[in-house]
Amino acid sequence: MILPDSILGVLGGGQLGRMFTVAARSMGYRVWVLDPDPGSPAGAIADRHLRAAYRDEAALTDMGENCAAITTEFENVPAETLQFLESRVPVRPASRAVAIARDRILEKTFIREQGLATAPFVAIRKEDDLADACQQLEMPALLKTAQLGYDGKGQLAVSNPDEARQGFQRLGATPCVLEERVQLELELSVILARSVTGETALFPVAENTHVNGILDTSCVPARVSNELAAQAERMARKLADAMQYCGVLAVEFFLTANGKLLINEMAPRPHNSGHYTLDACLNSQFEQQVRTLCGLPPGSTALLSPVVMVNILGDWWAEGTPPPWGQLFNHPQTKLHLYGKQQARVGRKMGHFNCLAAELDEAIHTAEQVRAELTTERTTKFSRGQST
User: Fold this and answer.
1) Are residues 275 and 313 in the same domain?
2) Domain extent for 38
3) CA distance 327 to 329
């Protein structure tokens, strides 16, 4: 076991790295962050910020010699970086799990190999693959890059083979998956923490709403049956066990209009849809990340209160002016989390807030009210039944 006052390393210095750093330092650990961005939100509060590229051998050697263990806040760290560090220090999750999760072709194939359902898809490695793929799948479909796509980036809706070919070129003629669009009833996610010995703790299932491909809200507990929630938990656990995973894993699901539960994708790290755990659970997903990284057993994931998490995007800054935060603080059961980013841009995640209440409907009402007070938006974001 790696105990407090040890140095923990994190690759990536965005908001997930920042929240990991807060959790680790609160638990008595020191944190080194590797991120080339001098304005890194995590680097700003870490014990040491290594401003170097992820392939910088001198920086990696420094981390390997001084850190007791290393984790990552995003899956697109170069594979050779993880392998270099693994030869020197425990890296959790391991490079094999990260490699599966970072590539949609590998990921969806792996999920299917475990006997778990995904939306119908075909791997597209070259343009000539598209004609057969369009015949195999029902159109319309989504063309998604195999790597580097997130928050709606790296994907296009296509309706026919010509659009698919044009889309493939627009995406850089890089390997992709072509995936049938499914009619959704809900989007769900499960966050779990798995230790080096396989002990697993699962957080309550979250019900998620996306807008323009970006997570907008998470409601917990999800408004689904106990049986469906248990099924999602079993599927997530099965994936983690199959990878012999160690760390925090997020698994996103589609619930189709005909009641079928499909796995959309997984993330080998804490996840935006798990930010509710910061205020509504006995241990947050970031505390679990510290625990699993350090060889400790997972903590309790008990839900202390129904909660709604709302993402705050750069869109909320009117001509560079921040939202009127004072309005939010008039709601005593609402908690604000800002990420320390200096520049607000459209679509950029700047923070989130959690609304807690005795009943989920009350939390939803508060979240809608706070959003309306902070922005000019007046339309609800809590509707169900979207297609993706």
Assistant:
1) yes
2) 7-91
3) 6
pLDDT tens-digit readout, 338-352: 999 989 999 999 999
List, for residues 147-185, the tens digit of each pLDDT value: 876 656 778 899 999 989 999 999 999 999 999 999 899
HSE-CB for 84 with a 13 A CA cutoff: 18
Tell whether the model's pLDDT for residue 386 goes beyond 60: no
Q: In sequence order, what DSSP letters do the residues of 135-193 get, joined into one string? A: HHSPSSEEEEESSS--TTTTEEEE-SHHHHHHHHHHTTS--EEEEE--BEEEEEEEEEE
| C-beta pairs of 60-66 under 8 Å, 24+ apart in sequence | 60/34, 60/84, 60/85, 61/88, 63/9, 63/32, 63/34, 63/89, 64/88, 64/89, 66/7, 66/32
Domain membership of residue 322 (yes or no) is: yes
Beta bridge partners of 211: 214
Domain-ending residue, one of 49, 70, 91: 91
At residue 149, the pLDDT reads: 64
Residue 379 has pLDDT above 60, yes or no: no
CA distances (Å), origin 128, targets 125, 167, 168: 8, 13, 11
**What was the pLDDT predicted at 213?**
87
Whether residue 11 is contained in a domain is answered as yes
pLDDT band for 319, please (50, 70, 90 cuts).
confident
Q: Which residues contact 50 (CB under 8 A, 6 or more apart)?
A: 32, 33, 34, 35, 59, 62, 63
Identify the domain boundary among 180, 207, 225.
180
For residues 356 and 307, give the distance between their C-alpha atoms in angstroms, rounded to a whole number: 4
Domain count, the chain: 3
Sheet containing 121-124: which strands, arranged edge to edge? Answer: 121-124, 176-180, 141-145, 155-158
- Return the HEC string of 322-383: CCCHHHHCCCCCEEEEECCCCCCCCCCEEEEEEEECCCHHHHHHHHHHHHHHHCCCCCCCCC
Strand 261-267 relative to strand 176-180: parallel, antiparallel, unpaired? Answer: unpaired
Count Cα atoms within 13 angstroms, Cβ side, for 188. Answer: 29
